[in-house]
UniProtKB/TrEMBL annotation:
The keyword Transferase applies. It is an enzyme of class 2 (transferase). It comes from Deinococcus actinosclerus. This is Phosphopantetheine adenylyltransferase. Substrate binds at residues 8, 40, 74, 89. Its cofactor is Mg(2+).
């Protein structure tokens, strides 16, 4: 049985990687699909191409995982998949459940698409792409919270902030 792991992945986090690792053990094949909307492109830190590049690098070691993108309804994407394919979504905490339950019901209602939830390990319960983006925008260390490909891309995106913060920290150390 095949699965689709959809999301914004702006960028992919260690929590996503944990869910993906578990999904790749359960399903024959998992497609990680960046769901994008041209009208919402400006709301993301990384462009679609950048997110795909990060995903390809972060998932290269999985023999049964591929990366894709789609700019429409998830149910329309699912209709193009092999019969019986399911949507995989990760749950970090109870707070995710209400939102995910609503989307899962909607996707079943409008497209007969089935969703399977996989719980991320508790150590990732507090990690989200938005928090990672926030920390990185101040030059903070996110290396534990994201795969190496995301960390490098965040560092490149905020190169000036990281350099400035590192210089400040070095100056503080030298002065103490
Ligand atoms: O990583 P995210 O932002 O939580 O992922 C949400 C996503 C992209 C899976 C969801 O917004 C989605 O499926 N978008 C595609 C449009 C769609 O099908 N919307 C109807 C269900 S909300």
């Amino acid at each position: 049985m095949n699965a689709v792991f959809p999301g914004s992945f702006d960028p992919i986090t260690s929590g996503h990687m944990d869910v993906l690792t578990r999904a790749a053990r359960i399903f024959d094949h998992v497609t990680v699909t960046v769901m994008h909307n041209a009208r919402k492109q400006g709301r993301h830190l990384f462009t679609l191409d950048e997110r795909l590049e990060i995903l390809r690098e972060a998932t290269a070691h999985f023999p049964n995982v591929s990366v894709d993108s789609f700019g429409g309804l998830l149910v329309d994407y699912m209709a193009r998949q092999e019969t019986g394919s399911v949507i995989v979504r990760g749950l970090r905490a109870v707070s995710d459940y209400e939102y995910e339950l609503q989307i899962a019901h909607l996707n079943r209602q409008i497209g007969d698409a089935e969703t399977v939830f996989i719980m991320a390990a508790t150590r990732w319960s507090f990690v989200s792409s938005s928090m990672v983006r926030e920390i990185a925008s101040y030059g903070g260390n996110v290396s534990e919270m994201v795969p190496r490909a995301s960390a490098s891309a965040l560092r490149r995106k905020h190169a000036d902030v990281y350099e400035e913060r590192e210089a400040e920290l070095q100056a503080q150390t030298a002065g103490s």
